[in-house]
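Posting this for the archive.
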Amino acid sequence: MGRKKAPPRGLLKIGKMAKLAGVLPSTIRYYTELGLLEVAATTPGGQRLYDKKDTLTKVRMIKNIERQHLPLQTIRKILEDHRAKALESTLR
């Protein structure tokens, strides 16, 4: 039997990502469906891979914002603004 190939460095499968972030895999899937998280890559078998640093940062931000009882649409806008500011500072 062949040995399973590990994901590329810095990318995690959904189960490990969820465990590290302290949420359920279904939460990661839900946030992805809403456009709050991005899948960095997929395995040949179709499993989602998430960038460890980016996804952890976003999940923590989402959870902190949710504690303030803001709707997910507002959270999406905050993340979009954060992403735009990060891109803008990178281009300077």
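The two ends are 51 Å apart (CA to CA). The beta strands are 11-13, 41-42, 48-51.
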